[in-house]
Specification:
Elements (H helix, E strand, L loop, with lengths): L5 H6 L6 E5 L3 H10 L2 E4 L3 H4 L11 H14 L4 E5 L8 H15 L3 E3 L7 H9 L4 E6 L15 H15 L5 E5 L3 H10 L4 E4 L7 E4 L1 H4 L16 H17 L12
Parallel strand pairs: 1-2, 1-8, 2-3, 3-4, 4-5, 5-6, 6-7, 7-8
Helix pairs in contact: 2-4, 5-6, 7-8
The structure holds 3-methyl-2-oxobutanoic acid.
Length: 259
């Protein structure tokens, strides 16, 4: 088993698609680790695991608990910690929190959402040896609505400029979320590090999805999510069968009893 490094991720640009997925728990981390280059402990966990109505409410302490577990059980993949809302309001706050995260979770990198506005923060962190992944396009921590970005010229120009600025600030990869196909293509061509798309077309250097969405466990199915499974249905059937067995005294059977 060869550990995926940032150098290996960088070499994949324009060559081999980079496979990424979110994970928040031991069991998913163990499975994802077999097939993914990057595992993101996304702040989406606030919504998918804790039922919050926005990613903004998740606390760094909660994220740290999940990230520690994921990192413990993902031995090969690069594990990235998604810095929650308001934990990188300026470079000093960002550095203090990022160091705490790296020390407590042993994650390989952190992710920050934003473009030109956060370039000085990214530079400050990368100069101090904290590997950073960028995130442009739709920014769930600050966006007022969940709408595809880059449909008009002004937005396209602004997102491209954001991506170039973030690229020049020392990140090792950039997530592009929910933008029109041709913008993702232009960004991928014009920046030096790999782009990882979520709702950003096949022209990115890699892809990421929220694991609960692709497994059919969440109730969030925008166009860009391909559902590979319907776990909600499978779990519901199992729970229903269990309840029936208990009521009919079919469970526990002889096989499940100590004698
Ligand atoms: O929090 C998250 O899961 C993310 C992905 C959507 C990229 O940021």
């Amino acid at each position: 088993m060869q550990k995926i490094t940032i150098e290996k991720i960088l070499k994949k640009k324009n060559k081999n698609p980079i496979v990424c997925l979110t994970a928040y728990s031991k069991s998913i981390a163990q499975i994802a680790d077999k097939y993914c280059d990057i595992i993101l402990v996304g702040d989406s966990l606030g919504m998918v695991l804790y039922g919050m109505n926005t990613t903004r409410k998740i606390k760094i302490e909660t994220m740290i608990l999940h990230a520690k577990t994921v990192k413990d059980f993902a031995r090969k993949s690069l594990v990235v910690f998604d810095m929650p809302y308001k934990t990188y309001t300026n470079k000093f706050v960002a550095y203090k929190n990022a160091r705490k995260v790296m020390r407590l979770t042993k994650c390989d990198a952190i992710k920050l959402e934003g473009g030109k506005k956060i370039v000085n923060i990214i530079k400050y962190l990368t100069k101090r040896k904290i590997p950073v992944m960028g995130h442009v396009g739709l920014l769930p921590q600050t966006s007022i609505n969940f709408k595809v970005k880059g449909k008009n010229f002004i937005q396209k120009k602004q997102i491209l400029e954001d991506a170039i600025a973030v690229d020049n600030s020392g990140v090792f990869a950039i997530i592009i979320e929910c933008v029109v196909e041709n913008l993702a293509k232009i960004i991928t061509k014009n920046i030096s590090v790999p782009t990882i798309g979520i709702g950003a077309s096949k022209y990115c250097d890699g892809q990421i999805l929220v694991v609960d969405d692709m497994l059919g466990l969440s109730d969030f199915y925008p166009k860009f999510v391909k559902q590979y499974s319907n776990l909600k249905k499978i779990i519901e059937k199992s729970v229903k069968d269990y309840a029936k067995d208990v009521k009919l005294r079919k469970f526990p059977s002889n096989k499940n009893v100590y004698k």
